[in-house]
Amino acid sequence: MSSIARSRATSSNRCGARWVVGPAGAPCLAGASVSRFRRVRPDPAAELGKDDAKSKERYQVISSGQSIGIGGDGYYGYRDDLYESVSGTLARYGRPVDGRSVFLHKGLFAETWPRYARPQVAFAHIDCDWYDPVEFCLNAVLTRLAPGGIIALDDYHDYGGCRAATDEFLGAHPGVFAVDNGPNLILRRVQLR
Question: Which of the pair, 190 or 45, is modelled with greater confidence?
Fold first, then answer.
């Protein structure tokens, strides 16, 4: 059982983005990897990682091309126009990808994060299911997360790898975050460290 009490059995895994007005004008970082799924991550079943059986099974379904999206639509990770679609959704909600306050980078997390040159992040939405990318994203964002900044974890309640990486991260940084255990786990930075 995780250190965060599980408040619900399932969570939706949407392609949409969530928005928070950043503190002190710090930029929002929306999304991260928007490349086709098959390029996103090596098979967790082939590794001695911390992903649970459900996570590994999910990977197998997605990589086989058989995943179905919400409402029976096609799985968003198969879309060739995902970057354009996410950019359009952000624009429709008044937060266009403008390169000044909202950034959307195409590629793998470890490849795109070093190119993000802004000193602070107000909001990071982490939706990458498995232990290794969640661990990478949490640790990378921490160094730039503004006071009062938000990290939303889409898959905490759904996948053991995400949960394990998050619980380890919170254990390594006690008192740094206020935790809101709603439909998606929300971490708000309350202390610099």
Answer: 190
Domains of the chain by residue range? 23-189
CA–CA separation, 54 and 61 (whole Å) = 11
Q: What is the DSSP string of 85-133?
A: HHHHHHHHTT----SSSEE---S-HHHHGGG---S-EEEEEE---SHHH
106-161 pLDDT tens trace = 888 888 888 888 889 999 999 888 899 999 999 999 999 999 999 999 999 999 99
The tokens of 61 are what? 């379904």
Which CATH superfamily hosts domain 23-189?
Answer: Vaccinia Virus protein VP39 (3.40.50.150)
**124-144 burial code (b ≥16 CB/10 A, e <16):** bbbbbbbbbbbbbbbebbbeb
What pTM does this model have?
A: 0.72
